[in-house]
Amino acid sequence: MLTTRRYIPTRLWVSRPGRDRGREYYPYWLHARRADVLGVRGDWPAQQEIHSRSLDWAESIGDGRLIAGSRIDLGYMLHNRGRSRDAQPLFQQAEQWYRAANDRAGMARALGALGNVHFKLGEYDQAIERYRQRLAIVEAQGDQASIAACLANLSNVYGERGELAECRTLAQRAFDIYQLLGDRYSLAITMGNIGVIHWSEGDHAGALDWYHRQASLSLQLGDKFHYGVTLGNIAVLHIERREFDLAEPMTRERLRISREMGDPRGEAVSLDHLATIFRLRGDATKAEPLLSEALAICRRTGDKY
Q: The whole model's pTM is what?
């Protein structure tokens, strides 16, 4: 079901998990790195196929650590493509294996994945619990990249709950760490999230500045998904200003990218925004079927975020 807010800028969770170490099967890691590249380029179907094959192979040799890691990789793809309920048991199975093996790094990775599922399903208290469990582990390990990811994800939850002061503090802490690490991919994501905070506070000029910074960096990185999200968020600002001739092409481009990648949430949000443009122009006959299509997608995925 769609949120009751009139416009929906998109917050992003950070999920750049490190690989499990385990035994060094070079072809496996080569496939994993190729899947990461395909994900940034926006080829989610090919990325999912690689992760599915990798899980089959890991299960065939009975390597528990690789099985757990492959379950998380495949789970993320299902989650991203609107199948969070299918992803959840894969994350749970991985977390159970890591816990039994006393693999703290693996547990942290699985807890973060479970937090993302709860967040997307609108289960915010459970999401906070999982993220804070992960944060306790990675802080003890001194893993700065994972600390930043936890802070960014917690910021998103507090933002959805309307606790903007905490949201801003956490996002800024994450941003500062990513700058120190030189992690441009995660930095771009966090730029967009800071833009959403400015939007929520009514600072549209500040939001637009952060969105343009994110769009520029995402283009440099060849990051198709986050570039599309940024276009959608910029379009929201143009809708609020009644600048429909600027908003419509951006919204249609995000819709095209979402459909091409197999991103149902992006598709539903874009349909909602496109319907809003038609409604505000006074053309309800074009708006209604778009809203019906968006609602059907949300019912199918169970996406409450």
A: 0.82
For residue 279, CA distances in Å to 5, 43, 221, 272, 276 come to 15, 33, 36, 10, 5
State the 10-residue block means of pLDDT for the chain, 305 residues long.
44 46 58 81 84 89 92 91 91 97 96 95 95 97 96 95 94 96 95 94 94 95 93 94 96 96 92 96 92 90 66
- Residue 68 to residue 73: CA distance in whole angstroms: 9
Output the six-digit token pair for 103: 């693999």
Name the helix (H) or strand (E) containing 237. helix 224-240
Is the distance from CB of 136 to CB of 115 less than 8 angstroms? no
Structure token digits, residue 101: 């093996």
DSSP label of 23? S
DSSP 8-state code for residue 65: H
Within 8 A by CB and 6+ apart from 236, the residues are: 7, 8, 9, 199, 247, 273
Distance CA 115, CA 152 (A): 12
Contacts 24+ apart (CB under 8 A), 134-141: 134/108, 134/109, 137/104, 137/105, 137/107, 137/108, 137/111, 138/108, 140/104, 141/104, 141/105, 141/108
- Return d(Cα 80, Cα 33) in angstroms, integer: 18
Tell me the CB-side half-sphere exposure of residue 129, using CA atoms within 13 A.
7
